[in-house]
Write a structure and sequence with these properties.
The protein is of the alpha/beta class. It contains 13 helices and 23 strands. The protein folds into 2 domains: 236 residues, FAD/NAD(P)-binding domain, CATH 3.50.50; 123 residues, D-Amino Acid Oxidase, Chain A, domain 2, CATH 3.30.9.100. Strand 21 and strand 22 form a beta hairpin.
Length: 446
């Protein structure tokens, strides 16, 4: 076995000298993930069909769905669960994936959510949008979730389906050859037939292939905190809909999300650089937050920056990137987890039969799927772009009286995550504007 391992590593190294694809289709330099101290790493003897890096929503969902179909899946996760994570509001379009995984919403993890409540404290205007107002095709509700527990639930469903999930595994290297996929950790090298990067904002394959493209017109930094022991009087303001509050501000936006056990998640996102004091001086000093958090216990304040990006080459021969490793959009419309779940579901549905047929190595295996995800990403990107860069649009759509107007149903379908459909004029408008904006920026660059 030791001799076979040495032979395999030598051959793999020869094949990996070939450079990975760049976003423009040319070959670029092979980039190391990190500086590491060489150690003796043994080759795993256990056979796997699919290697998944990351056990977040995308990784656990794709692992669970593949394992349900008898695929041998290994998931490598660097953190122990449960662990803190932001991204606590789901959309109706993701619920069917949870159903397929056998997730049973419990009160310790899930809070019912009927829609979104937009608020502008400067003008005193508000707008409430319910998912039940959307075009036919999606559920009329979603969930707010406590992510540490939610991610653990999804991980447990993957394990129950037969996936091998290992925590505390730091990935030092990963990639594919013409015949295999591999992931190297500190102690072991795993091989399989296919590699799925679900590493979240670590986005390992995008960094390796130099295919990350930032969205520079969206929010760039977030500052947030949580409050425990919210009073019964404050909690009653969310009853019965438990909608996310989206606070419109001149420099960005804020959120207030009701979570299980009477906890609130409160945060601020801005295109400009902000720090913890900006959260204090801005959202937390407003009358709504002061009222909702009176007497509550404040927890740690956190800062996240450098988000809003896309992997220009999300898949290739024997690999794909899903979830935040594929694309992370500004979180103003809570699209992240839902897009990750739908991405994972479709990849599993395509990859499982390909593995059975022996066609998983085709470079264009996921081409049609990528086009569908591109439509979803461009739809939300178009809405986010207008939200940030066209104040009149945001004020008229989200704070104006649009009840009874045909456009309202189209808006709600997008807010529900129903972005793979046809027949939504509002979505088609967003896509057309996005295409024209891209052409205009290209002409300006020329």
């Amino acid at each position: 076995m030791a001799r076979l391992a040495r032979i395999w590593r030598a051959r793999a190294a020869e094949r990996l000298d070939a450079a990975p694809p760049r976003g423009d289709g040319r070959l670029g330099p092979r980039r190391a993930l990190r500086n590491t101290t060489p150690t003796e790493v043994r080759l795993s003897s256990k056979p796997y069909d699919v290697l998944v890096v990351g056990a977040g929503p995308a990784g656990s969902a794709v692992a669970g769905l593949l394992a349900q179909r008898g695929v041998r899946v290994l998931v490598l996760e660097k953190d122990s669960f449960p662990r803190f994570h932001i991204g606590e509001s789901l959309l109706p379009a993701g619920l069917p994936v949870l159903d397929r995984l056998g997730v049973v919403p419990g009160a310790d993890t899930f809070v019912f959510k009927r829609g979104a409540h937009f608020v502008c404290e400067d003008s005193g205007r508000e707008g409430i949008f319910g998912f039940s107002e959307a075009l036919p095709g999606c559920a009329s509700h979603a969930w707010q979730v406590e992510r540490a527990r939610f991610d653990t639930v999804l991980r447990d469903r993957a394990v129950a389906a037969g996936a091998d999930v290992r925590h505390g595994e730091t990935v030092l290297d990963l990639g594919t050859t013409s015949e295999r996929a591999f992931v190297k950790t500190r102690t072991e090298t795993f091989t399989g037939k296919y590699l799925i990067d679900a590493s979240g904002q670590s986005r390992l394959l995008a960094r390796r292939h130099d295919t990350m493209q930032p969205y520079d017109r969206f929010g760039s930094v977030s500052v947030f905190t949580h409050y425990d022991d919210v009073s019964d009087a404050a909690w009653s303001e969310f009853v019965p809909d438990f909608n996310i509050r989206i606070m419109l501000r001149p420099d960005g936006w804020g959120w207030i999300i009701p979570l299980p056990r009477q906890r609130l998640s409160i945060g601020l996102v801005s295109k400009a650089k902000i720090t913890a004091p900006d959260l204090e001086a801005g959202l937390l000093s407003g009358p709504l937050v002061r009222r909702l958090t009176s007497g509550a216990r404040r927890l740690e304040t956190r800062v996240i920056g450098n988000f809003s990006y896309r992997n220009k080459v999300p898949s290739g021969a024997r690999y794909t990137a899903i979830g935040d490793a594929s694309c992370f959009l500004d979180p103003v419309f809570s699209s992240g987890v839902t897009l990750a779940l739908r991405n994972a579901e479709r990849v599993a549905d395509i990859l499982a039969p390909a593995l059975e047929a022996g066609t998983e190595g085709a470079a264009d295996l996921l081409s049609a799927h990528n086009e569908g995800m591109d439509r979803a990403f461009r739809t939300f990107a178009g809405l986010i772009d207008r939200f940030y860069n066209n104040p009149t649009f945001a004020q008229s759509i989200f704070l104006g009286d649009s009840r009874g107007m045909p456009v309202r149903r189209g808006v709600m379908s997008v807010l529900a995550g129903d972005v793979w459909r046809t027949g939504n004029p509002f979505q088609e408008m967003l896509l057309a504007a996005r295409r024209e904006g891209g052409r205009a920026r290209s002409r300006g660059a020329d």
